[in-house]
UniProtKB/TrEMBL annotation:
InterPro entries: Cell_cycle_FtsW-rel_CS (IPR018365), FtsW/RodA (IPR001182), RodA/MrdB (IPR011923)
Organism: Peribacillus asahii
Protein name in the entry: Rod shape-determining protein RodA
Main location: membrane
Domain of life (superkingdom): Bacteria
Length: 386
């Protein structure tokens, strides 16, 4: 009885509450989304099963303390790279091409698994380990040690990034870049190094964007950008000229969210048909049925989640734990900003799901694995008053 009480007292029930509310939101939204289409699969049931598996993953990860997480981080990272490599070399009978990308393993009778969703968490562990180990070995900071740390972080990220780009999966590639950026900014690398790099990156992105708009043939030739990727950018800037192709989803999404107005139309009262809305465009369903109020509540839940993880990272005295928190925050924040942004036309469509709400077993289980790390931090590290 005492062990049980000790276990429950170390569980982060604040995080449990937030995840439970996100789970309820997901189930209600997916139920509504699947009821407006002719689907042979029960997406709601599959999402509930994925949540149950996710709880099991959390309970497994929570048993690992910081030393154990550091020990397994490179094994997990290496396993992730191996699986991503298998996606490249395995035949299409095992790795089918879905929506133009070879990103999933197909298991008969089971479904599909997207390894890159788990690679995000493995990368967070690896980068946190790199930063923590580097600072232990280099107590005296110099420009040389900072450059060496930056090089290691980029190198560790480039390996999975290149493999994921081979699929190709632009959305997940951007998430890895967001994780890397967050880890670099928290790593303690001098701004004398970062400022020129950031300035150069902004200039480079602006230049590429200029050429995409005015000299697309050069981008196709030298960067290997596909025609459909140009379509996503053009349809983002002017969706109504691409209403029958790439701009179709964006126009329907804007119409759905706008028609929801302040209070929404109510559960099951959708009038705008948006194909496959249970995945990347689940926020459009919420916006139409629950309006500005409902959408704001969902965004507030994500704000509370990020705030809770930030608080966890600030309260812990273990730097390795802090780096993990920053990596998870970077991943979730980019996901939320990009997904909601693309449904309202602020960001281009990249196929990034809304964490914990969009339908998708691999995405959900990968995010639950990340939450397992946060639960582990709370479980193994007590908060001190002074």
């Amino acid at each position: 009885m005492q062990e049980q009480n000790n276990f429950s007292s170390r569980i982060d029930f604040g995080l449990v509450t937030i995840l439970l509310l996100l789970c309820i939101t997901s189930c209600v939204a997916i139920y509504s989304a699947q009821s407006t289409g002719q689907y042979s699969s029960n997406f709601l049931l599959k999402q509930i099963v994925s949540y149950m598996v996710g709880v099991g993953i959390v309970l497994g990860v929570i048993t690992l303390d910081s030393d154990q997480l550091k020990k397994i981080s490179w094994y997990a990272y290496g396993f992730g790279l191996f699986v991503l490599l298998m996606l490249v070399i395995m035949p299409e009978s095992i790795v089918p091409r879905i929506n133009g990308a070879r990103s999933w393993f197909k298991f008969p009778g089971f479904g599909t698994i997207q390894p890159s969703e788990f690679m995000k968490v493995f990368l967070i562990l690896a980068l946190a380990n790199v930063i923590h180990t580097h600072h232990l070995k280099n107590s005296l900071k110099t420009i040389e040690t900072d450059l060496w740390l930056l090089g290691k972080l980029i190198l560790v990220t480039m390996a999975p990034l290149l493999l994921i780009m081979q699929q190709p999966d632009l959305g997940t590639s951007l998430v890895l870049c967001a994780i890397l950026a967050g880890m670099i900014f928290i790593s303690g690398i001098s701004w004398k190094i970062l400022l020129p790099i950031v300035s150069t990156a902004v200039l480079l992105i602006s230049t590429i964007f200029y050429f995409i708009l005015w000299q697309p043939d050069l981008i196709k030739k030298y960067l290997g950008v596909k025609e459909y990727q140009f379509g996503r950018i053009y349809s983002w800037l002017d969706p109504y000229n691409y209403s029958s192709a790439e701009g179709f989803h964006l126009i329907k999404s804007l119409l759905a969210i706008g028609s929801g107005q302040t209070f929404g139309k109510g559960l099951g009262s959708r009038e705008v048909y948006l194909p496959e809305s249970q995945t990347d465009f689940i926020f459009s369903v919420i916006g139409e049925e629950y309006g500005f109020i409902g959408s704001s509540i969902v965004i507030s839940l994500f704000f509370l989640l990020v705030y809770h993880i930030t608080k966890t990272g600030m309260e812990t005295k273990n730097n390795f734990y802090t780096y993990i928190c920053v990596g998870v925050i970077s991943m979730l924040t980019f996901h939320v900003f990009q997904n909601i942004g693309m449904t309202i036309g602020v960001m281009p469509i990249t196929g990034i799901p809304l964490p914990f709400i969009s339908y998708g077993g691999s995405s959900l289980m990968g995010n639950m694995m990340a939450m397992g790390l946060i639960f582990s931090i709370r479980y193994h590290h007590k908060k001190y008053m002074f």
